[in-house]
C-alpha cells in the first residue's frame, strides 16, 4: 500500500513554487518591465493558484499586451483590458467553431455539439460587450442610482456557464480536442477578469473606488 506523507506533499509544493519562481525570473529578463500597478494587481490576484487557476505570468503578460495598462490609474482599467482580451478571444473562438462546423458536415453529433458552442461563444461576446460598458462607465453609487459594485464581477461570472456548456457538449464528440485551448484560455481570462474586478471593488482608495469620485 502506498501512502502519501503530508510532509512529502508539502515538500513537492515547495519545489513547485521554487521552480515557478525560477521560470518567472528567467522570463522576466527578456520581457519589458511591467509597470508597478500591473505587478501589484497580479501579485494580489494570482496569490492562490488553486482557486483562480491562472499564473502570475499569465496575468502580467495579458495586461502588458495592451498599452492602456501601463498608464492605468486604477484596477478598473486593468480589468477592462482583461475583459477586452477575453472578448477578442471569444470572437476568435466563434470563428473557429464556424470553421469546424464546415468541416464536420457528415458528423451529426459533432455538428450539433458545435452548434451549441457557437451559441455559447457568440452569446459570450455579447455579454462581454455589456460588461465592458458597465465597467467603462462605472461610478460610485449616488444614493440608489447606478449599478452596485458586485454587478461588475457578477457580469463576468455569467460567461462561466457558456464556457462550461460548450465543453460539456463537445466532451463526447470527436471535436473536443480542437477547442481545448479555447476552453483553457477563456476560463483563465474569465477568472482573471472577475478577480481584477473583485480586487477593484474591495481595494481602499486610491486604487479602488475612491479614484472614481469626480473631483469638483
Ligand atoms: C497604444 O497602442 C496602439 C496600437 O496598439 C496605438 O494605436 C496607440 O497610439 C497607443 N497608445 C498609446 C497611449 O501609446
Ligand atoms: C476560477 O476557475 C475555477 C475553475 O474553472 C472556478 O472553480 C473558480 O470559481 C474560478 N475562480 C474565480 C475567482 O473566478
Ligand atoms: C488583495 O487585495 C485586497 C484588497 O485590497 C486585500 O484585502 C487582500 O489582503 C490582498 N491579498 C493579497 C494576497 O495581497
From TrEMBL:
Keywords: Disulfide bond, Signal. The keyword rRNA processing does not apply. GO terms for molecular function: enzyme inhibitor activity. Residues 1-27 form the signal peptide. InterPro entries: Invertase/methylesterase_inhib, Pectinesterase_inhib_dom. GO terms for biological process: plant-type cell wall modification. The keyword Signal applies. One of its GO terms (cellular component) is plant-type cell wall. It holds the Pfam family PMEI. Residues 39-136 form the Pectinesterase inhibitor domain. SUPFAM superfamilies: Plant invertase/pectin methylesterase inhibitor. Belongs to the PMEI family. This is Pectinesterase inhibitor domain-containing protein. It comes from Hordeum vulgare subsp. vulgare. The lineage of its organism: Eukaryota, Viridiplantae, Streptophyta, Embryophyta, Tracheophyta.
Amino acid at each position: 500500500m502506498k501512502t502519501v506523507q503530508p510532509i512529502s506533499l508539502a515538500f513537492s509544493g515547495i519545489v513547485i513554487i521554487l521552480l515557478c519562481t525560477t521560470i518567472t525570473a528567467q522570463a522576466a529578463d527578456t520581457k519589458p518591465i511591467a509597470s508597478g500597478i500591473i505587478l501589484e494587481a497580479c501579485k494580489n490576484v494570482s496569490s492562490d493558484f488553486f482557486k483562480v487557476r491562472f499564473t502570475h505570468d499569465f496575468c502580467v503578460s495579458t495586461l502588458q499586451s495592451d498599452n492602456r495598462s501601463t498608464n492605468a490609474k486604477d484596477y478598473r482599467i486593468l480589468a477592462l483590458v482583461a475583459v477586452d482580451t477575453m472578448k477578442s478571444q471569444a470572437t476568435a473562438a466563434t470563428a473557429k467553431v464556424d470553421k469546424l462546423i464546415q468541416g464536420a458536415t457528415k458528423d451529426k453529433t459533432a455538428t450539433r455539439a458545435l452548434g451549441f458552442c457557437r451559441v455559447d461563444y457568440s452569446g459570450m461576446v455579447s455579454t462581454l460587450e455589456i460588461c465592458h460598458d458597465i465597467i467603462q462607465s462605472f461610478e460610485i453609487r449616488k444614493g440608489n442610482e447606478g449599478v452596485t459594485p458586485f454587478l461588475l464581477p457578477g457580469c463576468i461570472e455569467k460567461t462561466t456557464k457558456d464556457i462550461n456548456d460548450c465543453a460539456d457538449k463537445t466532451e463526447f464528440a470527436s471535436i473536443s480536442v480542437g477547442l481545448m485551448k479555447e476552453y483553457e484560455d477563456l476560463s483563465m481570462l474569465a477568472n482573471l477578469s472577475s478577480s481584477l474586478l473583485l480586487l477593484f471593488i474591495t481595494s481602499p482608495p486610491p486604487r479602488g473606488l475612491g479614484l472614481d469620485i469626480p473631483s469638483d
